[in-house]
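Box 4.2: Ligand-aware structure prediction
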Amino acid sequence: MLANLRGGIQGRTGSAPQKAAFAPARRGCAHARTGGRRTTVVVRADGGDFYDLLGVPRSADKKTIKQAYRQKARKFHPDVNKDPGAEDLFKKIGEAYEVLSDDNKKAIYDKYGEAGLKGGMGGMGGGPGVEFTNPFDLFESFFGGNMGGMGGMGGMGGGMGGFSQRARNRAVPGEDDKVDLQLDFLEAVFGCSRELDVDRLTGCDECETTGVRKGTTPSTCPQCQGTGQVVSAVRTPLGTFQQVSLCPRCEGSGQISQPCTKCQGDGRVRETKRISLKVPAGVDAGSRLRVRGEGNSGRRGGEPGDLYVYITIKDHPELRRDGITIHSDVEISYVDAILGTQVKVTTVDGPVELKIPPGTQPGTTLLMAKRGVPRLGSPNVRGDHMVHVRVRIPKSLSADERKLVEELKELQSKTKVGPFRF
Ligand SMILES: [Zn+2]
Ligand SMILES: [Zn+2]
């Protein structure tokens, strides 16, 4: 197959897609700074006092604060409390707990209020402010990754179903894969087609990616009776809670199956696949080509990952490359430098005649327009080829040559003009 490279080219040659990726990032930063400045004058913004939110006095100790959080967070968790505004309150309660349970944050809050935590207050040195944990993650750190601690409360059926459903049928996207590709100098300049043998995980044909051994059918998990969850009682200072967790035997699927002999139950096997890659003109060392969908296969119907091809380039005996510009050297004799000459220069297009004008100085750079590298993504635009001229001054002269140069010297002293006036 022919790999689809459209829009997937990234390189350090200043290609268009790369620029597009940088621009929004800069805008994002500027926006964030504006937000920080705006909070400077607001003290105790919306949401009310953190102590009031948790219903504790300002003198409350850590244990009281923790207990208050547990109680309030369980009351207002949006899975349980369907009142409008319960979720906002739940998040606010999480923030309140995060601040009041941390000595540093609490001290700032007591002094400057909520605005002090968001940065910009003089006392905070205009720092980036405190980042709050996702309130649901905080909740889970208390109650164990699910609503298990909520056993006995009404309206939980839907939530539980969602939990096990997710674990059971969760599609897992395939991992990206990478491969190195070394190109010859000219292959990188003009692009090329290459066949790559890529070793990656692909869907198992033996079990049709299910991971279940051929000819067997999955049976109900004896440990969880097919629910995918196990329930245990957890004793805490606040009472006994029912802890519901993922069944360790079936990993939440509710079913036990014999693993496929070919893929050991993964649903994928490692296989070498040949991919035809079209390398675009102008790729440079360090360019990364993304081949969409040619990474490892996903699991349970998940999207496959992408294949990233990292480009390295072999040196050329004569040509050097700097982005889209080619450099090379040419050496001429001092006589040719004086009188001018024509030389044959190796370019990416092959040998080209170059005129060296009379009176060319050592170190002169001559430009051969549009003999450089096509720009990645817009191959009609080409860089230039810079020819650096070196002038060879002989270290020793034959007797005849010496005689002629001395004659020149004499001529020069008479006329006060001439090519040898240094
Ligand atoms: Zn089970
Ligand atoms: Zn298999």
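In the box above, the bound molecule is zinc ion. Residues 1-46, 120-130, 145-168 have pLDDT under 50 and may be disordered.
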